[in-house]
Amino acid sequence: MADGAAVQFDDVWKKFRQGERHDSLRDLGPALIARLTRRRDPQALRDQEFWALREVSFEVKAGEALGIIGPNGAGKSTTLKLLTKIIRPTRGRFAVHGRVGALIEIAAGFHPDLTGRENVFLQGAIMGMRRDEIPRKLDEIVEFAGVGAFLDTPVKRYSSGMNARLGFAVAAHLQPDVLIIDEVLSVGDMAFQQRCVERMQHFKRQGVAIVFVSHNLQAVESLCDNALFLHREPRAYGPTSEVLQTYLRASMEAGGSSANEEVQILGAQLLDAAGEPAKAAVPGDLLTLEVRVHVRKPLPDLYVGLMCLRSTDLLVVYDGHFHDPEIGLSRVSEGHVVKLSCTFRAHLTRGHYHLACQVIHGPTQRILSRLAPAAMLVVEETRTYAGVVDLDVTVDRKDEGPLAPTLVPADGQVVRG
Predict the structure, then answer these.
(1) Would you state the pLDDT for residue 53?
(2) Res. 44 pLDDT band, cuts 50 70 90
(3) Which terminus of the chain is more solvent-facing, meaning fewer CB atoms within 10 Å of its CB: N or C?
(4) Are 8 and 94 in contact (CB under 8 A)?
(5) Which of 395, 311, 389 minimizes the C-alpha distance to 345?
(6) DSSP 3-state assignment of 103?
(7) Greatest CA span in the chain, whole angstroms?
């Protein structure tokens, strides 16, 4: 265990075996004999076995947060189940020191027939809370979860969001040394998600080590010091912003900047209105993406494509093309490097976004060079709860005074006095 590390994975491997069926004794007999006589090698894969994790190593120190990202089936949940000792590794070792608070499944540990109140006591006991600790924190837990009106209702009547809120609320009041969380921000409204983020930030300041699995890249970038891009084995591990770039590049199957004999995109950077590197913005900020292009061999009718995507689900929120008459890329001298400045306003709602750019040959529609992501951007604001585009809505209030009393005359017609 490294000095100061609260969580450590050291060359961890985990394999599983897909289910197999034998429809008759004729099939079962040879299978059993083969299994008994086969030479056992713990590192070899046998019938229908597969590696869920291979060569995974990382550490998290007190007061740090590690974000684990990757596609579905990448081994993220397997990693958390190892950390919480639900399963054991096939090879390698890991260690978790101190009191652990874990929320790795919605309503994990809840009994459906027990009420919310009863499950708080049950879950608290499972997580290691002392007998006198749970009653003292009950009101805070219920208020945080926002389920007070349903506290004495069986949790099988709860929605998935209510279950998750209550489960996180218990873990959030555990005062753990290590907090392990899986996708708690995928449920609940924005107000609850914000409370979760604020509580996790509070834990970090108190010296808690956090392992956080999420598809919410904005939350990962804002909370985590380091990140692990996992796809059965580590694809990238290090500072969060660098790992997110690698993950987005892989998600778009771009492999970074492509190159050929004619044109190559050398790189790009995102700048704010003052010309400084920009990583965050608020809706309406003026931004410029500077793209450097090496024209190795001029071609006619070259145009540039610019895309903006929401990183969480790769939703395309902008896709524009700038043709040769606008930028004159085909008129650049052979071997020269040009800088293209794409200026725009970030009329986007809160979230994590990334930009991609490409150079296309018009007559053949060949993509000559592509860079994805060209830049990443976190949009921060407190107004919206959902959506993509910022409509720049303003709200005005005018006091019209009390409502006039309603008079009902004998003929039944309503008259306002």
Answers:
(1) 92
(2) low
(3) C
(4) yes
(5) 389
(6) strand
(7) 101
Q: Which superfamily is assigned to 5-18+49-248 in CATH?
A: P-loop containing nucleotide triphosphate hydrolases (3.40.50.300)
Beta strands 91-96; 65-69: pairing state: unpaired
In what helix (H) or strand (E) does residue 203 lie, and over which residues does it extend? helix 190-205
- Element (DSSP H or E) covering residue 307: strand 302-310
How far is residue 262's CA from residue 324's CA, in Å, rounded to a whole number?
16
SS3 383: coil
- Contacts of 394 by beta carbon, 8 Å cutoff, 6+ apart: none
Query: In what order do the strands lie in the sheet containing 209-213?
Result: 100-103, 178-182, 209-213, 65-69, 226-230, 234-239
Give 326's Cβ-side CA count (13 Å radius). Answer: 11
Q: For residue 256, what pLDDT band results from cuts at 50, 70 and 90? A: very low
**Per-residue pLDDT at 413:** 62
In Å, what is the CA distance from 413 to each residue of 53, 212, 404, 407? Answer: 76, 64, 16, 9
Q: Considering only 13-17, 184-188, 222-226, which range has the smallest mean pLDDT?
A: 184-188
Alpha-carbon span 209 to 97, nearest angstrom? 10
Question: Cα separation of 75 and 207, whole Å?
Answer: 27
CATH classification number, 254-379, choose in 2.70.50.60, 2.40.50.140, 1.20.1250.20, 1.10.10.10 = 2.70.50.60
Query: Which structure tokens are listed for 391?
Result: 């409509």
Q: How far is the C-alpha of 352 from the C-alpha of 311, rounded, in Å?
A: 6
CATH 2.70.50.60 maps onto the chain at 254-379
Q: Is 148 exposed, middle or buried (0-12, 13-18, 19+ CB in 10 A)?
A: exposed
DSSP states of 108-165 as a string? TT--TTSBHHHHHHHHHHHTT--TTHHHHHHHHHHHHHT-GGGTTSBGGGS-HHHHHH
Relative orientation angle of helices 190-205 and 160-172, to the nearest 10 degrees: 20
| Number of Cβ within a 10 Å radius of residue 154 | 16
CATH 3.40.50.300 residue ranges of the chain are 5-18+49-248
CA atoms within 13 A on the CB side of 79: 36
pTM over 0.70: no
C-alpha dihedral (368, 373, 374, 379), degrees to nearest 10: 150
Span 325-351, pLDDT tens digits: 888 988 999 999 999 999 999 999 988
Looking at the DSSP bridge assignments, the partners of residue 94 are 9
